[in-house]
User: Fold these one by one.
Assistant:
Number 1:
Amino acid sequence: MWYLTSAFLFCEVYIFATSEKANLGWVDTSRSYEQRSKLNERAVLFRCEFFILAVAQAVLHMYHDTDRLLVPVVAQPAPQPPQDETTPTVLQRMPVSIQKLQKTSGQTAIRAVTLTYCVILLGPIAYYGLLRQSAWAIAYPIAKTFFTLHKSARPTGLTDVMALAFRFLFASLLQIVLWEISNQAFTLFASEEPLRKGQPLTSDSKNPNGSLITGLQAKKEIPRNMAYWELALITERFEDRRKTLYQDLDRVQGSTWSQVSALCIEEIQRVNKSIQAALQPSAPSTAEQPNQQPPPKQRISQPLKEGNVFNAAPQPKGTFDALASGVGSVAKSLGSSPGANPVGQQAQKMIGYSTDKVLSKEQQQNLNTANLSRQANKYILLLFESPLGVVFRQPFARRINAIVFGTPYSRASNLHHAIQALCKLVVCSLKEDTLGQVQDDVSSIIRTLVSTIQNLQTLLQALPIHWSDVAFDGNRQVKEVDDLLAELRDGLEQVIICFGEYADAIGLSRAELRAAKEAVNKKPEMEVARK
């Protein structure tokens, strides 16, 4: 709808600016002294082509998922200034967002030119084949409101087609470039790091840690994503702010560390719950009946009458009523009599005789239920194997990502940021946690990371392939899940290196420590090949 509205607004502005020279107004007045005013089909075609352009842009926008926000899943360290003392160029002095727009300007121009030429070639075909009568029926009442037109006005045809094509080429190029640049600018602006003047967003708040916790608990996706991203940046770049997460104790719902760690663990535990729900068979819908029967209730009315409970039919009063009653009795007896029905047997004989005359024995065998089901399955598989069936498939990677990261919006960035922040806080607690409150939670954090790694590995091996996934090649490695496993292993490895020698003191058994080391050392085949 946004593309359609903006296309028509741009079209009207362009026509208003060039209507006298381009003759794109509603009424054709090129020879007004010779004939009556008539509706100009050039203007109708020009607006229809912008309508087709808006529909094509909307389809491409949805297909490529252009409106997604590219939130990085890894909190990068603070960028270092250049070491050389040479004068930076003009491009280097520009903001990062402007530099990114400049890098994508070539792709934007290519997409604009390609889409414009496709609409120029296919637009007139769609107009004359599908839209001409409908567009004329819509444009005529609009133009009649402002001009005097004859009732029998019909499409007048086009004049100077090449000039119209060049004008649409110029206008559509400007429109597509405007769409692309505005969309990329908004995406880059919304995907910037949650920093203000080089500091976290919540640093300006009166209660920075309280604002951060409120963001982590937000129900809406964007505030929660930005809060987890800010938490990961705080643990990675801002040492002074990170220390306050250990020292802030005076809170109603617990210390800042306890609330932040609980929220991060809850975010990781959601993966385990989703995997368990996906692998467990569905529970029976009916509840088990108790063994003891309830005592019978006391009867408060007389039992129902058995036998014929209807009143006797009234006696026929005339010859016509007697004849109708007799025909009705015969029909009821034929319909309700048990056993073979003489009318049904005769009908079945006629159907069988007709079938033998029309169809051969082989054709009759092909019409049974099993063959029909086999043929239907064959055609369904052919549909799924064709390009049209891509939208109906359920690939293995898509199902895995839906289970692990959730639907309809992915939680991949939240998961990565929660793992990074939690493990970084645990590692830095050896030097910065002067109150010693983190060590009580280290064992539960290690168990959570180990169980998540094991569940992800089990899911990759145990999830059955959907019957519609005809393109499955046997590869059960999914890039997004492998990246998450690598993140979990890196974080778990850092925690074990720092607290492995204190396993007994933190309440971690030798068996659990051994399982954690095995989870870290068990690298997937794809990750090893990538390295």
Note: The first helix runs from residue 2 to 22.
Number 2:
Amino acid sequence: MRLVRARVTNFKSIDDSGWVTFEQETCLVGKNESGKTAFLQALEKISPVEASAGDFDVLDYPRKHYVQYRQVHSKTPAVVVRAEFELTPEELKEIESEFATGLLTSRKVTYSKDYANKLSLDMQMDEAPMVKSLIEKAGLPADTAGIASTAKTIDDLQAALEGIPDAPPSVNALSESVRDRFKTTLSTQVEKKLESLRPRFVYFDEYSTMQGRISVQDMRQRQGKGEGSLTNSDRTFLALLSLVGAKLQDLENEKNYERVKAELEAASINITDEVFRFWSQNKQLEVEFDLSPANPADSPPLNAGTILHVRIKNNRHRVSVPFDQRSRGFVWFFSFLVYFSQIEDKGYNLLLLLDEPGLSLHAKAQNDFLRFIDERLGSRHQVIYSTHSPFMVNPAHFERVRTVQDLDEKGTVLSDNVLRNDRDTVFPLQAALGYELAQTLFLGPNCLLVDGPSDLIYLPFLSEAARVKGSIQLDSRWVIVPTGGADKVATFVSLLGANKLNVAVLMDVGRGSRQRIENLQTIGLLSTSNIVPISEATMTKEADIEDIFDPQFYVDLVNATYAKDLPTPIALAALPLSSPRITKRIEELFKSAGIAAGEFSHYRPALHLLAQQANLLAAIDDATIGRASKLFERVNALLVEQPRAAAASA
């Protein structure tokens, strides 16, 4: 079963999150206190792997409406979370082999849970195929089979069988079989089967990391009081014990301690080795364990009984420190793998809810954790994680991003439309894209300077459209670098040219910037042929990358992007004729008509195209492909092969 979408209502800061769709890996991006944690915590309670995390508390109802709700809670408890799952073809086949083909008329099922903590299931089921299967397997005589076949439900079948006069033995046998098999209803049996297939949700946050000192006696006492008395940190340590088949009482028995210590260290070595597969930071770390009597001068509960010390040793400096006091990034990574490995060993179908994973990780280590999600977690389990760090957003997969905003009068709202969010919310996305650009500036021997970030989207899109049509693409060896305008080209050329990189300029250079660029040509940093005006492909006086597209296609793109700002869609014929550049004409219309406060963003239509690229590729006409391929052929001719060493030194 895979989670398709979910909706949270009336929970903490959330009045109504709206329906949120999920990918195999989904990233929730939002500011601090925007409601990311509340959404994940509510979602977990649909199917928690820890039973103690399963119940809603009525006090979590939004406080602004709590007094009114309290009066109706006992009679009509509010639904908090709804989650729609989809069965895999293999799971559907498994259900049909146990019951009957066609029993479920949809692969999608929806679970919901309310403040009374009642879990409800909505599924589309038809009992007729089950009735038909039972009749066919019973081998009834033709006349009685005809009577029984009028039944559409199990109850109808039982009534029909009991109403057959002078029933033959086969009818009596089927009647008895149905009575025995369906002492519990068919829907209840199917629900039980679906329950076994439903993913278990694993919630992990910063508070789940292991502690450096653990009072064995105190943890045993709290464990005896039930799961609710244990903290997330406790559960992580108990998961480590479970991995080696040990119990807390083994740590208090001197005869068992050396064995348990050896097993713990062996397990920690295996987990550390897995951490280091994805950890590019300090690899000189190892986890050690030791026992000592409690120090009466310490604060409770560490002042009595036996204390287990978990320490991190740095082999580079040959010192050790308490586990939770140093190397917080490593501590988080190690703790998560301990907890996750123990649960994964149980064979559950898991869905991971990671709340601000790797918050204490260095930026490079956060990138390592993204790789860990892709290669280790996402390949086996569905993952939903929250962040406000740009280094935890994969700029190659913005389709995985869902933004989280706390809006006045609306509460927390989630959306897959990154275009309609405030600047603070989408800042991690912008920063992730900017960081990706910065990372590539000096990595490619061939740099193609373009006007702005829109070109970074349009050029790969047009190249893919050309590939589909069998035309010339933009060579993948080009590193596309947005400059922010022709007036900044000279600065970028100087910067890149000084690093002995091949630089080409793909834009129409205006008169104001031409003198500075000619100076670069004079000193040999830029060849005249390396300036490629887009107007060469459009055969107009001047052009932007948007002019490669058919004008009507681009106007349709703008209409879709600004649908909520436009009283009526823009008509191509209504655009002023003041410029050959379609963006300039649209800018003039927005300003004169006061559309979107008179401001037209070139980037918003590009983002809309990026989000809908699978659907829009087919809408690209041959004339657009022709203009794009003409441009790509001209640019590709400027590629320069450089020695590997030179490229690396750049």
Note: The chain has a mean pLDDT of 85.
